[in-house]
Design a protein that fits this description.
The protein is of the alpha+beta class and 102 residues long. It contains three helices and four strands. A hairpin with a 2-residue loop joins strand 3 and strand 4 (17-21). The two termini are 30 Å apart. This is LysR substrate-binding domain-containing protein.
Amino acid sequence: MRLPGGPSRWEFECARKSVTINASGSLIIDDTHLVIEAALAGVGLGLAYDEQVAEYIAERRLVRVLEEWTPPIPCFFLYYPSRRLQPAALSALVNALRLSQQ
């Protein structure tokens, strides 16, 4: 998965041990839906949120791997281009998400 600044790193954690991998390969995608489509096509491993792949896992079209190394994420992550000149709607969303985490 490519994020602004380059390919994302895969971070794993199990029994207080953390591992970060700079995944490399011949295919780098910047859209989660395309990551899922590539995994469904058998291209390789993909990283996605449970909610995005639950249907495919239930249908046995995808299989979880390294499940014990991927604990649930306890909070929201929001990526946006800049803090300057934020639209009012984005500022309201950021504030609402911050309040929901308190």
